[in-house]
Specification:
disordered N terminus
């Protein structure tokens, strides 16, 4: 996917698809909603994501790359809240992971991530 097409698709998803998928993403396995504050506006946003348990926390597939506003918001804030499988969790210590082989992702979703050319992930730890 070209960067230009990717940004257009991201804009469409933000305006249309996210409103439809957000309620489902809170409960379905492999999905979640990241709650984060805007860097400048401090307004709360809710972004549907593909998320998986990973080591001591969670791994989010960055389908639109590391330049997405929500990713920058989470990195700047040092964390976020995540609603997944109906539970809300506080997550901290965000780190970008780059893996061309998509090794951190569950084996079953790697083919789809490969098709979408996703090689970046956001890892967050659960707050204690």
């Amino acid at each position: 996917m070209s960067p230009r097409l990717g940004r257009r698709m991201a804009h469409f998803n933000r305006r249309v698809t996210n409103h439809v998928t957000r309620p489902l993403a809170r409960r379905l396995p492999g999905f979640g909603v990241v709650i984060h504050a805007g860097r400048k506006s401090k307004q709360l946003h809710q972004t549907p994501v593909n998320v998986f348990r990973y080591n001591d926390g969670y791994l989010i597939a960055l389908t639109y790359g590391v330049e997405s506003d929500w990713v920058k918001n989470v990195l700047t804030a040092g964390g976020c809240e995540l609603i997944t499988r109906g539970r809300r969790r506080r997550l901290i210590s965000p780190q970008i992971l780059h893996d061309e082989q998509r090794g951190p992702a569950p084996t079953v979703v790697r083919p789809m991530l490969r098709l979408l050319r996703v090689t970046d992930f956001l890892h967050l730890e659960g707050a204690r």
